[in-house]
Amino acid sequence: MKQHIADLIQDAIDALKAAGEFDADLVAKIQIDNTKDKQHGDFACNVALTLAKVARRKPRDIAQLICSHLPASASVTKTQIAGPGFINFFISQDATQAIIGKVLEEGEKFGRNNSGAGHKVQVEFVSANPTGPLHVGHGRGAAYGASVSNLLEASGYEVEREYYVNDAGRQMNILAASVWLRYLQQAGEDIVFPSNGYQGAYVKDIAEQLHQSAGDRLKHSATQVMANLHADGPEGDKEKHIDDLIARAKDLLGESDYWLVFDAGLDSIRDDIKQDLHGFGVDYQHWFSERSLDQDDQINRAIKKLQEQEHVYEDGGALWFRSTAFGDDKDRVVKRDNGQTTYFASDIAYHLNKFERGMDTVINVWGADHHGYITRVKAALEALGIDPKRLVVKLVQFAILYRGEERVQMSTRSGSFVTLRELREEVGKDASRFFYVTRKSEQHMDFDLELAKTESKDNPVYYIQYAHARICTLINRLAQENMAWDSAMGLKQLEKLKEAAEITLMQQIALYPEVLANAASNHEPHQIAHYLKDLAGNFHSYYNAHRMVIDDVPLRNARMCLCMAARQVMANGLDLLGVDAPEHM
């Protein structure tokens, strides 16, 4: 309807140009908004105010000219000029009711559009280091990234969901050392576990499985392992101590067995993450290994490309990327003086790889603590000849979990954290997914654990699901009363839907395609969450005020058509957020 009104206004402006009222080269920016107060119409446009300067007329005079030249439309019953020059549009009852038939005809496709057709987008999200189970902090990124992916697909984009597996670097070596030391304890060695190792019980489980499969073949004496190491903290240096243990593990095990231990930890945790996310309703098309970048020499190739463009220089034996030339606050090392490439160099190679795979746009969902990293990555892309605007970074604040008044502390290294799996088991997948996307991703969020478990209207996901289930049970109630719903008859009797609550509900349903389009283009799934809550609220008000199971057959069928249209939109919206639409509660 907004597009229809915009077309009417453009036709009027074109007619005014032809009549010499406006200059032939005048360009109007036409924006149609929903009115807050329906007494002032259904839609409003401020085009007269925006044209005042270029048209050299008063806004109200322009509004009057436009209204007098609007083509006739069966959908618009009247127009009204308000305030300094706003044009209000009143929509006919037939046009309002037409949305019901459209929803019932299109079903699951209602609201979808093809604005992104032919555009390939990669959404990379979660990508937590495979050093431990996912915790509730990762859950928000998972829910957000998955919902954004769904929204983009619903807008016609070709979407690839990707998880970047950080299976290289120091943290993974610390995990490998931790697994091996726990393995040695399983094998009967009296090993003092390092303060900087991974403490969680999951490390012991991995070590136990390793011991069962490898026996004592990987065993070395505690004396050999602990000899001549830097002292551990707090008296010594815990960082040097763990680095010594990593070096000792590599030396005593040899390359082949070290990678056996390394992969035992990696494979177990990565597989657990996959299963955990699947249970959360999140699946990926691609799990990308960071190690593959080095194995395929992609990191050195990316550095060489930068060197060829003279964006890399040598200083102190290290290679530096001249990122200050692209807006960064300082230049960045890509290869250290010992010949080792940096994590940033890996990131450059990874992003080059993404675009070389044919992505038109790449969306990275990062934790808010990565804010300072955006400029340097975009700088590298620009230096490589890739438009940095093609990389979109969405920052996600960690959700803070509370049990009553007590905040739950989370630390992967210490092993003291609430896992995403534990959250799902306690409050359910649906409540978790929905709560995570009720606010903008960059906004701080407290996760109210008790509210998420409440079966009341204060719990938004329960409130919406209950509305959906309520409508589903109407079909059973009709059967129990030896009544039926005839949708074809109901669609012919929509003029009977005259109650204020019915009109409000129809108008709310009609907003869904616009909300979906805006949510997708702005990467804001919270718009869908808020819309669904409002839609459920309107339905509950309607349901509580008016009976559906009635003897008046035409009115009953019309009301059931309205209810079933509302049900379909609720189901469509919940699906985009990864939330089930139950038929019974």
Task: Please render the helix and strand layout as text.
Elements: H1 2-18, E1 32-34, E2 43-45, H2 47-55, H3 59-68, E3 76-82, E4 86-91, H4 93-106, E5 120-124, H5 136-154, E6 158-165, H6 170-186, H7 201-214, H8 222-226, H9 238-279, E7 286-289, H10 290-295, H11 298-308, E8 312-315, E9 318-321, E10 332-335, H12 343-356, E11 361-367, H13 374-383, E12 391-396, E13 399-403, E14 406-407, H14 420-427, H15 429-436, E15 445-448, H16 449-452, H17 460-480, H18 487-492, H19 500-510, H20 512-522, H21 526-545, H22 553-576
Parallel strand pairs: 5-6, 5-11, 6-7, 11-12, 13-15
Antiparallel strand pairs: 1-2, 2-4, 3-4, 8-9, 9-10, 13-14
Kindly describe this structure.
With 585 residues, the protein is α/β, with parallel strands linked by helices. Helix content is 51%, strand content 12%. The chain is built from 22 helices and 15 strands. Helix 13 links the parallel strand 11 (361-367) and strand 12. Helix 4 crosses helix 19 and helix 19 (500-510) packs parallel to helix 22. The mean pLDDT is 94.
What is the CATH fold-level name of the domain at 460-576?
A: Isoleucyl-tRNA Synthetase, Domain 1
Alpha-carbon Rg, integer: 30 Å
Give the strand order, joined by hyphens, for the main sheet. 7-6-5-11-12
| Helix percentage | 40-55%
CATH superfamily placement of the domain at 460-576: Isoleucyl-tRNA Synthetase, Domain 1
Strand runs, count: 15
Number of helices: 22
How widely separated are the two ends?
A: 35 Å
Task: Please report the first level of CATH classification, the CATH class of the domain at 460-576.
Answer: Mainly Alpha
- Tell me the CATH architecture of the domain at 460-576: Orthogonal Bundle
